[in-house]
Amino acid sequence: MADRDIAISFEHPEAAMKHIVRGIARRGLKPVPPKASISLRLDADVLEWLKSQGPGYQTRINAILRAYKEALA
């Protein structure tokens, strides 16, 4: 089937790379540990900066805290 033969519609949109990547099975990879849900107070300017970096600001907060933890170890 050629690309021109594929019908793109609201019900069947074109797949974005981020959706394809999320759909790849984690076969053979180490399981992701469960995360705890918490409430965290941040300075407004810090939160806005994290959000301005694009989607995934909570993941970035986790990565920053993990790097700090590992630097102290």
Condensed summary:
This protein is mainly alpha-helical and 73 residues long. The chain is 42% helix and 0% strand. It is built from 3 helices and no strands.
Keywords for this structure?
73 residues, mainly alpha, 42% helix
Protein architecture, described:
The structure is a single chain. This protein is mostly helical and 73 residues long. The chain has one domain (3-72). The chain is 42% helix and 0% strand. It has helices at 17-22, 44-52, 57-72. Helix 2 crosses helix 3.
Assembly type of the chains comes to single chain
* Strand/helix succession: HHH
- Measured by DSSP, the beta-strand proportion falls in under 5%
Main sheet?
none
Give the mean pLDDT: 85
Which parts are unreliable, with pLDDT below 50 for 5 consecutive residues or more? none
